[in-house]
Specification:
The structure is a single chain. The protein is α/β, with parallel strands linked by helices and 233 residues long. The protein has helices spanning 2-9, 12-19, 71-83, 96-102, 104-117, 151-174, 180-183, 189-198, 215-219, and strands at 25-31, 40-46, 88-94, 125-129, 140-143. The chain has a 5-stranded mixed beta sheet with strand order 3-2-1-4-5. A hairpin with an 8-residue loop joins strand 1 (25-31) and strand 2. Helix 4 (96-102) packs across helix 5 (104-117). The longest helix has 24 residues, at 151-174. The chain is globular, with a radius of gyration of 19 Å. The termini are far apart.
């Protein structure tokens, strides 16, 4: 009974909106705010409102917050979501240079906007994981821990997480000395040791500790001499 109740509860927000005539309800989430390296990625998903009564497609009923799934499960759900003929989705990547220009929060919001913009027709309401995105003009509902409370947000979190992990595997091939395939850019002891030994590579976020340059330090350098990298906001 508990498992069944969980299944139905995770569609509660979508069901309420669908029942009110708001048929295009998107979930949006990001991955990659915390790491020291690599892009931030956002996913956006609209499930068909025809699922008001039958509920989620059986291939997706184990869907959950991407952090609660194994890599194999995430890959399986990624394929199911992106190949389902009735599911609309968008995925957007914001690279390190933009993160360093506008800060990670604004970069994550930009990624969310870009992912939502790929949904055609545009969503009528957005369920957002976490705190409000003030720049979002579409009616929206922020949900703390939304990726565990809404299937739409959980689906978006899977798209974002899988896409980012794949990119970090590609970066691992370019910069194998950092171990990106294993820690995905997070500040693990292995990653910090590699940074201490090799310094920063092009995908490290210069606006993050331990790379952050303070305003006082910036005054001492010519910005054009810093590899052309954008300075802190």
């Amino acid at each position: 009974m508990a498992k069944s109740a969980t299944f139905w509860n995770r569609l509660n927000f979508e069901r309420e909106l669908w029942s009110q005539g708001t048929t295009l309800v998107a979930g949006v989430d990001e991955a990659g705010c915390g790491p020291l390296a690599g892009p931030v990625v956002a996913g956006a998903v609209i499930f068909p409102h025809q699922w008001l009564e039958p509920g989620l497609d059986k291939k997706l009923r184990g869907l959950n917050d991407s952090k609660q799934l194994t890599e194999e499960q995430r890959e399986k759900y990624f394929t199911s979501i992106t190949t389902h003929p009735e599911i609309r989705y968008g995925i957007a990547v914001v690279e390190v240079d933009i993160i360093d220009q506008i800060n990670i929060l604004q970069a994550a919001h930009r990624a969310m906007h870009l992912a939502l913009a790929q949904l055609q027709p545009a969503p009528q309401h957005v369920l957002v994981d976490g705190r409000p995105v003030k720049s979002l003009r579409i009616p929206n509902t922020p949900l703390v821990k939304g990726d565990a409370r809404s299937y739409s947000i959980a689906a978006a979190s899977v798209l974002a997480k899988v896409t980012r992990d794949r990119l970090m595997h590609e970066y691992h091939a370019q910069f194998p000395q950092y171990g990106f395939a294993e820690h995905k850019g997070y500040g693990t002891p292995q990653h910090l040791a590699a940074i201490a030994e090799h310094g920063a590579c092009p995908i490290h976020r210069r606006s993050f500790s331990p790379f952050r340059v303070t305003p006082v330090e910036l005054e001492l350098f010519d910005a054009d001499a810093l590899d052309g990298a954008p300075l802190l906001d």
